[in-house]
Structures are given as structure tokens and as C-alpha cells.
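Reopening: C-alpha cells for the iron/sulfur cluster complex, inputs below.
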Amino acid sequence: MLNAIRQNLTAKDINVGISACLLGDNVRYNGGHTQSKFCVDTLSKYFTFRRYCPEVESGFGIPRPTLRLEGDINNPRMAYTKQPGSDVSPQFYKTIEPFIKKQGDLSAYILMRKSPSCGMERIKVYQENGHSHVELQRGLFADALIKKYPNLPVEEDGRLNDKHLRENFILRVYAYYLFNKTVSVDEGMKSLVEFHSYYKYILMAHNQMAYKKLGQLVSGAKKIDFGELKEIYIGIFMQALKKPATRRNHTNVLQHIFGYIKTSLNSEAKRDIVNVIEKYRTSEVNLITPLTIIKHYLKLHGSSYINMQLYLDPYPSELGLQNGI
Ligand code: SF4
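Re-run output (same inputs, fresh job):
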């Protein structure tokens, strides 16, 4: 089931929420935008974007006075920057809460950084004395979204310029989409076992502990109600994938995969693979190089089990993400 869904994927299938200003909509406080070239030129070919500007939708207008977060660091309110002590949070929440509730079909969200509404992190909260707290917060929209969908891959546009974070985000988007289209729909143990098998090496590359824990969960599953089990599973799974895999862990996984075909190869082919994995380990080449060679030999000598591993093709190769890590 998973493989069929994956092979027939089109851009229309994967819905991704996005701060409207990142798509070039003139919705910022000053009537401008902050268009993201990567989102507009590249990601729009793979995802269907659902644009939303929480401040405009809340009726603050374009242009509008700038807003900021004030008060309690753990429960800040939205205020006009030039009117300290004001509170427009009730108006804001009245609009965004019903919107967020309807976003259960999203596979990811891309947020604009530094915004008191959309910022995913590092947002200042001002105290009554005019100074900001030392601790930083999320924007109010970002916070409400993440609390409602804790497993949803969420990223800021600025962080997507980092090759490792970009690769990691796209990997998570596809994984989350596939989980929701298979395990969540099928509601059966078979689909969870299948999902776990497909993601075995991706999990190993990201978090060995989580891989073991999830394996135990899947094998001893009968004691837990399936609805509860799949929630626990996806929570641990998405958390494990959140941190980009290290070069060391990728090396380990490449060696494991090599182990599947080793005995079928002549000494020259073996030497080539060992050399290229070593070059990857020492950062002489990026992941695409050992993967291309290994995939070539896997097609000739690998079992269907190893060839189905999503580690080999976690997202469309045209995105070129493995060239950068
Ligand atoms: S950052 Fe968010 S609130 Fe600000 S303009 Fe962009 S979409 Fe609107």
C-alpha cells in the first residue's frame, strides 16, 4: 500500500500550510511581502500550498500598526507596539483557533521568522518596564499550531536555507504524509509494521534508541489498543526524525546496507563501495555519491526488502537534497 501511494504521489496530494507573505502576498504590516524563492520556485512543484496570514485574517488590516508580544513569558499577549499594555489577543485567537482546527489534513507548515504571530522561535516578549524577557517565545499563531499538531513538521523559511535542515524538513514532510495516508487510514497492525519496515534505515540514521523503542512497540503491540499505539508510535517517530542524521550515523547505515550485497560482489566492486563510504565519512563527498553506487549494485543483487527501503529514496531525487548533506 505504502509503495503504491508513494509512487503515484503528485504535488496535489501533499498539503502544506504557509505564511502568506512567503508566497509573495502583500500582507505584511507595511503592505510588502517576504517572498521565499525556494518555496515559490521549488517547493510549489511538490506541494499544494495553503496560504494564510493570521494578522490580516484577524482584521488588523494592511498596512497596520506593528504588533509585539507582551506580559507573562509563558502566556504572552499580542499588543500594538506603540500602545504598550494593549491586548488584541482575543481578536487574534477568535480567528486563528477555528482555522487551526481545520488543518488536520496538512503534512507540514512553513512559517515566516521573526513575527510575533508566525515566528517559530526566538520571539521577544516585552515586560511592563519596556525590556524584553531573557527567555524567548514562539509567535502566537505558531504556538497554537504546534500545540494542536505536535507531530506536524513545522519549519521557518530562514532555516530552510540550511542544507541539512532543509533535507531534514522535506524528509519529515514525506514521512508524515505517508504515515497519515497508510497507518492512519488503514488502522491496522499490518500497515504499521509495513511503515516501520520501510523506514527502518531512516530511523537508524536519525536515532538508534528510537529505532529500538519503536521496534519493541511494533512487535509487542497486541497489549495496547491500536489507536493508542499508533499515536505513541508517530510521536516517537516524528521526534526521532526532527534532528538531522549525522554523517557518522549515515556511514553506519551505508555499511549495514552494503552488508546485504557484499557476498554477491566481486572484490573490485566491494573495494569501490568501501572507498566511497570512507570518502563520505571523511566529508570528501556528499551522501548522493555512496548512495548512487550502492543503489546501482542493490538493483543488481539486492533483495526486494532492501530495495524498498525509503532510506534510498525518501523524497523526489530531483530536489537534489542528498547533494548537499
Ligand atoms: S509573518 Fe505571518 S502575520 Fe506576518 S505578514 Fe507574514 S503571514 Fe502575515
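The chain has two domains: 11-161, 163-325. The longest helix spans residues 163-181. Marking as resolved unless the reporter disagrees.
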